[in-house]
Amino acid sequence: MRLKDFSVLNPQYKGESLDCEVSFVPMESLRNGAIDYQDIPFAEGKGKYTYFQDGDLLVAKVTPCFENGNIAIANNMKQGVGFGSSEIFVLRMNDKVLNTYMFYITQTAKFQEGACATMCGVGGLKRISPLFMRTYELDIPSLSKQQRIVNYLDVKLGKIDARIAILEKQQDAYARLKKSVVHHAVTRGLNPNVSLKDSGVEWIGLIPEHWERFRLKDLGYTYSGLTGKSGDDFRCDDETKTKPYVPFTNVLNNTVVDNDSFNYVAMGDNEQQNQVKTGDLLFLMSSEDYESIAKPAVVLGNPGEVYLNSFCRGLRITNHNCYAPFLNYQLNSEMYRDALRFEARGFTRINIKIDRVASHFVSLPPFLEQQAIAAYLDEKCSRIDAATENIGKQIDALKRLKRALINEVVTGQRAV
Questions:
Q1: What does the alpha-carbon distance between residue 326 and residue 329 come to, in Å, rounded to a whole number?
Q2: Cis ω on the peptide bond leading into residue 325 (within 30° of 0)?
Q3: What does the pLDDT look like over 132-147, one tens digit per residue?
Q4: Cα of 127 vs its chain's centroid, Å
């Protein structure tokens, strides 16, 4: 049977208008097997967003949300009615198929690989073809067998999910520990008995009495990124007019020196820019994500000839009393990050002006103490990161086990 033989794709609302709030599901609220509902007046949702009701299966249609498994059944909504992102497919089953059974079908490799093969679009926003959602073919067992499969998978997967939940709590605990270790080291140093003084900056508060307050512009100068047209195609054109640049994703991940990931940009004839150098701090100045704005990364290795992405700015440290790795830890600590983000502006795209970054306050100990703190944090954070990575591998293994179990049961390789 094809999907359209036992379901309706994106059904329309045919009831009466409601003078109340109903449930709302933006894309970020749709996850694998779960939905974080928000509220919206019915009048604001009808005709503007995708409609669904209790029992409907919601499937993210856009990459990477679909690949991340953002598929769930809508239940327990206000008035039994919901609206959501236009990037959501809605499947409403008839009496031949359980919605829970169809949820498990969407988790199989066959369905997911088939859906991904139909994706098309530009700008990274590729979408599943609606035709695929109507014509996907599958064998439908009896309702009693569907129920046995669902019951079996609910029990088995519930145990796996419980283990994943424990591991995720451990990950969260390590993340909080890392924040605490970094915060204490970059605001108080390593001496627990150090005397404190007022920093003169309200949000910084007290600092060790031998530390000094600076603005970033006191420590060096800022420079901008290339503004020309970019793309991998330029690598093979006239190399004298193209230059490699650091993608902003490298800045976000603090992997600045990674020549294999560098992209190329066409540089204007009169465009003069600073090359990225060892010891520079790089900042993301424009982002759709508020949490990423003004996030710094330090250049620790030798990147060779490379420039900045146009969304980024660099800080070239010229003050010999400033140790770049320490400064990077401090600016990445939660308190300093929050203060920088407070200076950002924007709605759909968040931006921060370079003068706001240059005027940002920091507090520095003597140079040798900065080195000692940075070395301490390198050692502590590497241990925490290793533990977190190990937990992540366990979670990934359990998620693979879930997918394998679903495939085996739904395809009949494992009898239930």
A1: 5
A2: no
A3: 999 999 999 999 999 9
A4: 19
